[in-house]
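ok so I'm stuck.
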Amino acid sequence: MKAKRKVAGANRPQLKTADLVGIDFSTTATKVVRLKKSKEGIALAGIDLLPAVDLGAPSQRLELPRNMVAYYGCLAYSGLSSVVRMVNAPLVEGETELPDEKLRALLNVGEDYRVSATLLKKGRGRQDSSFLAAAMPADDVRFFLNMFPSGPPAPASVEVSGLAFVSAFLHARGDECANEAVCLIETGESVSHFVFLNRGAVVLVGKFDVGGGMLQRRMAEELGVDTELARTILGDQSINVSASLVGTMNPFLKQLSISKDFIERHQGCRVSKTYVSGGASLFTHWTQAVGQELHTEVVPWSPFENIQCEPNILPANLAEQATRFSAAVGAAVGGFLES
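replied:
not stuck anymore, here's the structure
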């Protein structure tokens, strides 16, 4: 996934390390994992769930527990103002990258954004080439880099969580869908991303500013309960709240359905499965709505599949929330791919 995961953010040095910490800054928490790579594979060396960071406040040094500190850190964040998109553009003979000015124009962002793109398919003759492109506010990048002013971990990259999780998925389930077309959905508290893969290659990406928080608030308002009870109801199969849920997420679900039809027509394939991750994937009614709209099998997965875990390294309370760590794991796994 090396060529498909590189996105906007800090320039990533050529890491020569087998020990990385992945940190995902989301709106509800800061998810941290420490991974170590050896000839036997990748192992989980530590995991923690820290308080969320307020991007509206001055940046402060992030103090990690001692057992979670590696020399380099690979960072990801929800990116409420970030942009992720597939773009097509001509390439000069012998070139594999687009100038930043061209990328900003294609992504419709200004000079105050950091941009990056990875070539997915080189066009032949006069055909355009396809890129996976992303942009994030430069202020956000500086904010996170300033959280690590000196000493380990040194930030090696900053990327959008909605793309970082793909590296975790391919490490966990890549072989399973190597010859299939599938849809991946990462739904957090405030933002949802979808990625369509065909034979392991990214063919379409998208982002919606909706998430689990909106579902909880809508449910709480309609039922006259607090948000914690609303969260419990969303995960309870015995209570039918599908109408309210679909009403809230309908624009996102419709876009998913349209995107699926587009991929199937233009790629000559059938999207057979939808893999769900992120906090909202723990809501039973949400996953059911996805399956009904896309007419696919909905498959939950854990970012810790195919990762060695010593006994007691993954506490029971965090194991139940493993899907929330997909972006943190993906950021670190991607760092190994770059080394």
